[in-house]
Design brief:
heterodimer; A: five-stranded mixed β-sheet; B: alpha/beta; five-stranded mixed β-sheet; 5 strands
């Protein structure tokens, strides 16, 4: 399944749909890493609010995306993890320590704006 | 169920009981009226009500022993047991009644013809055993139900999550944290974070007396789960004992954001949210 990736200013917004296969996740990773380089992207928001389960592979891939994108020069924020999903992720030991998180898309964009300094927020 | 012998014994017992029922009722009423726990109940019932109750239970006993219809009797005993348990009558009280019951009946049963006397006493023992077993069970059930109810009430009470400012929650934890409570606490916190769109949670553990590795783990999990939803957790009220045991347990201190007391925790939370609390220059009743 294709994941819609929107460009908003110098940010990318990827809304992960329900029930992505492992192959879909890997394709998303490659696509995002490419786009970040091609469009001079400074921030990436990964919206996972539609996911009702995040298993260890998905968590690892999301973290991998964040790390790869950071090496390409952009910050990543994962937004919209549901309470029940967060709870089961913790049970599985998936704490995603090295990645920024935010409540929802709004918060995520605000966080990225803050990161780049008040002068460029917006 | 019952063997033929047991049934015969019960019948022999019943035949004696039928003759001396009046005496027995009077003796039991006297014991109950003098008993510290049962006296109140006896006093609250009129003579008519007592007679009616005796008549009803006699009919149930007769149906059970003569016609082998035990279910109505057992149901009745269960209901009574539960009712008395809820009234606060102790189970020991029943044994006081029982000993008076047996002391009245035993001489009467033994005065029967030799062969029948033994069988009648056995019948009584059997009847008493069944009765006490059912009442005891009803007591246990009732107490268990009460305990479960209280436990859930305590749990509901014990984890309030309060909003003190826009995007800022406080979570005071008081008492013992076990696995179940930690789970519930985390779930409640996560839902509260979403409902209030919280960005900072101040978790106050002044009321947590001791922390072992399990509890520490639970707290760290709660903090990690809150972070996944984009909320930072500030821990406050860590006593020196708790601090020592956290260090001793090798907890990764790097990921903890801790301040001394609730006040400084709230201030830290406000700082994280970009608030600055300032005194009005002309505010009354303060320092200059």
């Amino acid at each position: 399944m294709q994941v819609p990736v929107l460009k908003q200013g110098d940010c990318l917004i990827a809304t992960v749909q329900a029930a992505l296969t492992d192959a879909d996740l890997l394709r998303l990773r490659d696509e995002l890493a490419d786009k970040v380089g091609a469009h001079h992207i400074r921030g990436l928001v990964l919206d996972v609010s539609l996911l009702d389960v995040i298993d260890s592979f998905a968590a690892r891939t999301l973290r991998g995306i964040a790390h790869a994108v950071r090496l390409r020069g952009a910050e990543t924020v994962i937004v919209g993890i549901q309470p029940d999903v967060a709870f089961s992720m913790i049970q599985l030991g998936l704490t995603m320590e090295s990645v920024e998180t935010a409540l929802d898309l709004d918060e995520g964009l605000a966080l990225l704006g803050q990161r780049r300094g008040p002068g460029r927020a917006g | 169920m019952l063997t033929a012998e047991e049934q015969q014994a019960l019948r022999d017992f019943l035949s004696v009981l039928d003759v001396h029922q009046g005496e027995l009722d009077a003796a039991m009423l006297k014991t109950a009226a003098e008993h510290p726990e049962f006296s109140k109940i006896v006093r609250s019932m009129g003579q008519e009500q007592l007679d009616e109750q005796n008549r009803a239970s006699r009919a149930l006993v007769r149906a059970a022993i003569q016609e082998d219809q035990w279910l109505p009797l057992l149901d009745n005993l269960r209901t009574q047991g539960a009712a008395y348990a809820r009234m606060g009558i102790s189970f020991t009280g029943w044994f006081d009644l029982l000993s008076s019951y047996q002391s009245v009946l035993t001489p009467l049963l033994l005065s029967q013809q030799p062969g029948k006397a033994v069988s009648a006493v056995q019948g009584m023992t059997h009847y008493v055993g069944i009765t006490m077993a059912i009442i005891g069970e009803a007591y246990l059930r009732t107490k268990e139900a009460i305990i479960t109810q209280q436990q859930s009430a305590i749990r509901e009470l014990s984890t309030p999550i309060l909003q003190v400012r826009d995007r800022l929650l406080i979570l005071p934890i008081i008492g013992v944290i076990d696995t179940l409570r930690a789970r519930q606490l985390t779930e409640q916190l996560l839902h509260a974070i979403r409902a209030h769109r919280a960005r900072v949670v101040v978790m106050d553990i002044t009321g947590v007396a001791a922390v072992d590795s399990k509890v520490a783990n639970h707290l760290l999990q709660t903090i990690a789960a809150a972070r996944l939803m984009g909320a930072k957790v500030v821990i406050t009220g860590v006593s020196s004992d708790v601090a020592h045991s956290l260090v001793g347990l090798g907890v990764d201190i790097g990921q903890l954001n801790a301040t001394g007391d609730l006040q400084s925790g709230l201030e830290e939370g406000e700082r994280l949210l970009g608030y600055r609390v300032a005194r009005l220059p002309d505010a009354p009743g303060g320092r200059e």
